[in-house]
Design goal:
It is a single chain. By secondary structure, the chain is mainly α. Helices cover 73% and strands 0% of the residues. The protein has one domain: Serine Threonine Protein Phosphatase 5, Tetratricopeptide repeat (Alpha Horseshoe), CATH 1.25.40. The longest helix is centred in the last third of the chain and has 21 residues. The C terminus is likely disordered.
Length: 122
């Protein structure tokens, strides 16, 4: 995961778009754990937001939320919490670019999630 330190260096230099692209290019690395992918997707979203690409930021927050729900190594309560947070962030990014479909999709995902962490629905 040496690419993470390189991405952090790019972020320090305010080169957020390049940092996002670098992290995107490593998401399918075989040694990357699913829980790490969730965090990286979240970082990608943050980078796009800081480079003022709110549409891409929303898309990556949405993907991070979905990946969190699918991640078997994260406890159910934590994955639900992470997904809600990511969907809320995505909704804000979509709102900033007036993406009504994106906002609706995220509202539906966020508010459609069960509040019972032991429920089988995700």
């Amino acid at each position: 995961m040496g690419f993470v330190s390189e991405a952090l260096q790019l972020m320090k230099m305010n080169n957020y778009s390049e940092a996002a692209k670098l992290m995107e290019s490593h998401l399918n690395d075989s040694d990357l754990k699913p829980s790490a992918k969730v965090s990286i997707m979240s970082w990608i979203s943050e980078c796009y937001a800081k480079s003022d690409d709110r549409q891409s930021a929303g898309r990556w927050s949405e993907q991070a939320g979905r990946a969190a729900l699918a991640c078997q190594s994260i406890p159910k309560f934590e994955k639900m919490k992470k997904a809600r947070e990511e969907f809320e962030i995505a909704m804000g990014h979509y709102e900033a670019v007036n993406d009504v479909k994106g906002m609706g999709r995220m509202a539906s995902r966020k508010y459609g999630m069960t509040t019972n962490p032991t429920s089988s629905s995700s």
